[in-house]
Sequence to fold (160 residues):
Amino acid sequence: MYQLFLLELLIFVKKLNFFYFYFLFYRFIVDIFAMQLIFFITKILKIMAEETNESYQTYPNANTAMGVLCYFGVLLVIPLLTIKKEQRDGYIIRHLKQGLGLFALSILVSLVVNVTQNFIGSIFVLLDLILVILGIVSAVGKTDKKLPFIGDIFDKIPLN
Fold:
């Protein structure tokens, strides 16, 4: 009886070691993938920083709150409806266009993520979030910087 218990304990420990080895291997693979993802994101951010070195205009008297609201999805309706067309300057027009484009893009990305349910969709969500943060930083800085990669596309949205 005692020997049977020791044998079962040895088998259990052996299985535990086996699972622990796979856990460590899985963790190693996940860590490598995470490092590759961080490297990829930093590369994208460097490209974004290089593309945003173009000329832009600053607006010292800009309504920063309305510019920031443009990047919060449905809340872009507030500046769209409250600011009359005659009072819209280049600052608010640029941020309205970019906010509207990012809102449409986030809807598209969320549909892709829901349909595919894979990790690549999550990367697009992360990139969308990065673009929203860049837009908010531009709005808080009272500038009308274009968003990298897609700012030219969003400038074609007719809002005037």
